[in-house]
Amino acid sequence: RRKSFRHQRRRDGVAPLRPLRPPRTRPRRPTSHEGRGARSHERRVVTGHCVHDRNAAMPSDVREFDSSGRRAVPQLPTSVWGMALTQRRRRAVAVVVAAVGVLLVLAVIVVALTAIRSGGAGGQLRMGGGGGGGGTGDDGGLNNYDSMQPSPPPTAWPTSAPTPPTPQYRPVLHFTPRKNWANDVCGLYREPQGRLRFYYQYNPLGDVWGHMSWAGARESDQRGVFESIDGVPIPENLTSPDTSIFTGSAVTDVNNRSGLCHGTDSSDHHHCVLALFTCRRNHDNRQAQCLAVSTDGGYTFKPWPSNGKPLIDVASDAFRDPYVLWHERSNRYVAAISLAEEHVIMFYTSPNMKDWTLSSYVRLDAGRRPFEGGFECPVLVDAVTVDNLWLLKVDVEKGPTRVYYGHFNGTHFQQRTAHPRWTLLDGGPDYYAAQAWQYNGGGGGSGDSALVSTLAWLNNWRYAALLPTSPWRGQMTIPRTWHLKQYELRDSDGLHNSGNDVAVVVVQRFDEEVIAAMSKREVARMSNVHLIDEGTPKMLGDGGDVLLLDITVRSASGDDAVADPRFELQLRANSATDRFPSQFIGVQFDFHQRTLAVDRRSRGAPPPLGDDTELFADLYQVHDMRGDAVDDSIHLRVLLDRASIEVYCRTAVDETFMTVVVLPPDADAKIARVAGHGVVVESLVASDVSGGV
User: Fold this and answer.
1) Run of H or E including 244
2) pLDDT band at 17 (very low <50, low <70, confident <90, very high)
């Protein structure tokens, strides 16, 4: 090494340096010209082509020279770095270290993104053998929740620009808040006096999502029509500062099972209400379940315990929407709570609403994940009339509401296989976060009796913040009922079997008590009308903007029969001109394809939804609406309000429901008509149900 070093310097025209002596073990004495304060002799080393100078910044009078008169630079400490590496090697090592550092940072980022993607917004669900109360299928048990790490909180929509008041879109029959934002229905229950009461997600400070609290509404003197309750019964920060109040449910504790209802009178609006809801910590989006108690009939609430500590917490940022019911057989409360991003529903039990125990969980559609978005807002319903059949409803953030069938013993839900067609609860885009109140005794011994009353948010997260309504934004459905219906199975059906050739599924209908209570003014009637040429619709006149229609239609026979009979109800239509064809909201039924559809593409959306986006550009359909060989007729019940349309369709063997937001740009367009090709309208009754508003 020494020889090659001198050879290199001779080739470059530079005299070779003298080999340096090994460093002295004792410092030499300062020379006279260095002065008393001079530093001791420093060790020197030459490595490769570079001389390292640890004291390069030292004054020149304390620098030393070797015996040949050349300036000698003090040596570095005799370390591994200083003695073994050349400058070129050090540069190479530095590049390698930097590359390794970059790779480590990239690895951390990939791991974080993977956690957010898979466990993600819902925390990471770790599956193990048998822990956590057990599950179903091959999922194992839940464990290790303490290691879950929340993801950053979601960003709320920005405050929208002020919108001029839009009274033309204010519903008459459907509930809306007086002002500001409203979404999920929370805590639907029936008061001891018999009136329905519900709460809902509410922003008291604006018309977009944020500052989430619970506002309330109570049924008015007219069945199914609700009025706002003054104030905000459960405001944000009720349980602790920096907390939002998310979706939950409420129960009346008339028997004081909780021990929290002393001093309340169960009559005259002074019943005790317990609300279990998701309390979301804003700064890190951690979601847990908290309890609040009202002893004044549900008008004001206080947290329990008083410090607002959550009762159920699994260290997740997607653990939400508890639904509570009293399970008679086990004599306990049951709470179904969604671990949203995992498509998991967790079941907890409690004797008193205060002390909760994890009993089990079920992963819905395990292994398939067919839906985009998390599962939210579960509802658990006892079918009662079918031995140990229970219904588990969930809402899909970016998909339709689904119902799953299974057995429930008070702790475990055992899911049964069902064809996807029969898990669809509503075929429209705007039915979300339904809450249910179960009738005492369920179906009352009749397989066709109502199981529950339900109420849902009539909206969709894709465009909820864009709807140009003011000073409110958000509406609810009118009350509906769920029923069990028996079907004869075909080879392609994969339904829950209650027998060898019969399946039981859940369907929803309009609440007949609500329909009967409506103030009706008949505006059109027809019977036995043949619609052969679809280019000549029959006018129903100026039907108004709040209509209830009952229609029975069948395909034509004999000489009027066609290969592809179709029927269409056209609502909120405008008059055609030479330049512009007529536009309308269409309710269509194709007898050949057995398909029901609602078409809002031409008249369903005002600007900006109609012109600047395609959010309202979809045609919503429900397929495979079966008839039979003898009777292929359909019955339609359609409720049109100023900002929505709800459609119930029944065939000889099938039923379905569709819920759709419609906001016609021309509020004065109120023409109603029917059109068809090869069909007969056996009966039609159209009534104005605006009540004179």
Assistant:
1) strand 243-252
2) very low
Q: Is the pLDDT of residue 462 over 70?
A: yes
Q: Tell whether the model's pLDDT for residue 138 goes beyond 90.
A: no
- Per-residue pLDDT, averaged over 596-618, amounts to 73
Measured distance CA(282)–CA(512) in Å, rounded: 42
Do 120 and 112 touch, CB atoms closer than 8 A?
no
Q: What's the CA gap between 222 and 560, in Å, rounded?
A: 45
**Nearby residues of 357 by Cβ (< 8 Å), 6 or more positions away:** 133, 348, 349, 350
Lowest mean pLDDT among 457-471, 489-503, 624-638: 489-503
Q: What would the DSSP string read from start to end of 41-92?
A: PPP--EETTEE--TTTTS-GGG-EE-TTSPEEPPPPPS-HHHHH--HHHHHH
Q: How far apart are CA 254 and CA 469, in angstroms?
A: 40
**Tokens in use for 614?**
């395609």
Give the residue among 331, 379, 378, 333 at the shortest CA–CA distance from 354: 333
Contacts 24+ apart (CB under 8 A), 579-583: 583/669
Spatial CA neighbour of 123 closest among 285, 247, 280, 361: 285
Nearest to 331 by CA among 346, 345, 315, 351: 351
For 232-241, write each residue's pLDDT tens digit. 999 999 998 9
Q: Are 329 and 309 within 8 A, CB to CB?
A: no
CA distance 441 to 382: 9
Tell me the pLDDT tens digit for each residue of 529-575. Answer: 999 877 778 888 776 789 999 999 999 988 888 999 999 999 988 77
Please tell me the number of Cα atoms within 13 Å of 114 on its side-chain side. Answer: 6
pLDDT at residue 444, as a whole number = 33
Q: Highest-confidence range of 161-165, 396-400, 593-597, by mean pLDDT?
A: 593-597
CA–CA distance, 347 with 415 (Å, rounded to integer): 13
Helix, strand, coil percentages (3-state) for the chain, rounded to 5, are 10, 40, 50
Residues sharing a CB contact under 8 Å with residue 73, sequence separation 6 or more, in sequence order: 44, 51, 52, 53, 55, 56, 63
Which residues, in sequence order, are bridge partners of residue 550? 637, 685
**C-beta of residue 168 within 8 angstroms of C-beta of residue 460:** no
What is the 3-state secondary structure of 495-548? CCECCCCEEEEEEEEECHHHHHHCCCEEEEEEEEEEECCCCCCEEEEECCCCEE
User: Which of 636, 642, 625, 626 lies closest to 674, judged by CA?
Assistant: 636
Which pair of structure tokens corresponds to residue 615? 């959010």
pLDDT reported for residue 162: 62
174-188, 296-310, 531-545: the lowest-pLDDT one: 531-545
Instruction: Choose among 296, 232, 300, 304: nearest CA to 266.
Output: 296
Peptide bond just before 664 cis, omega within 30 deg: no
